[in-house]
Amino acid sequence: MAKDICPKGHDTRITGRDKHGSCKVCRHEHHVQTYVPKGPNRKKKLYCKNGHEIAVVGRYVSGACKECVSQYKKEHRGQNKTQFCPKGHDTFITGRDASNSECSQCRRERKRINPNKDARKKDFCKNGHDMTIVGRINHMCEVCRRDYEKQYAKDNADKIKAYKEIYLPKNKEKIRRQRKIYVELNKGKIVEYFRVHHLKNCYNLTDEKYNEMLAKQKRSCLGCLQTVEELGKLLTVDHDHSCCPKSKSCGKCIRGLLCSSCNVALGRLKDNVQTLKRLIKYLNKNKRR
What we know:
By secondary structure, the protein is mainly alpha-helical. The chain has 3 domains: 12-76, no CATH class; 91-147, no CATH class; 188-285, His-Me finger endonucleases (His-Me finger endonuclease fold, 3-Layer(aba) Sandwich). Helix content is 49%, strand content 4%. It has helices at 12-15, 24-34, 54-57, 66-76, 91-94, 104-113, 131-134, 142-155, 157-170, 172-185, 187-203, 207-216, 228-231, 260-268, 273-285; strands spanning 136-137, 140-141, 236-239, 254-258. The strands form 2 sheets. Strands 1-2 form a two-stranded antiparallel ribbon. A two-stranded antiparallel sheet has the order 3-4. The chain starts with 11 loop residues before the first helix and ends with a helix.
């Protein structure tokens, strides 16, 4: 009957025994110490010169110990790269390009001076757009991608409509949640978009022209002379209703910028000068002394 404790002190009830009755731990240690690989790899050592066990850390195809190579890379990382490029830019701040060979600032300056000379093909799309400036989406120029999506939507309108009829009813909750998150993250962007769209759609007025008018009026209402900062909001556009009776204007009959109170007052009085004069007379007559 085999003993429970082997000659080296291992409890064979825990470690187990092989088919010959030997302790498995002792047999494994003996195998590691005496193992010699067969074939073309038979001359490879079990331990590297620094004492790492090759069976544990592994080796590259060249035979180098992986742990030794890793330590060497850590010790010599960045030693072959200088902090300052030949033009004096601090590459620790400006960074280097993808190949780690050229200063990013120098690269941008070189492209700005002559974008088509000595430029990498992957930085320019087939239509000549510099993807480092316009951006890229999935390795595709962002400008070309938008043009492609617009053209695809025109050519496949029926297909997209049929897909939406199936997708939208099944994913109402998901779409509602995504829209809510987008609105929360982009409130300012959405408000600015609708403001510019309202100026263009209702008054045929660009944002640049509106800002010029606002600066000309010294950012104050032409009626009450309150500034934008005092009102806490931008001024509204006032137009001649005799030219354009409805809320929309042709753009030629715009008179100026008023605060919402002054604009509403003129609208209630229907731009009648005689009514305004009578009201002024009425206020002066009933003025408390």
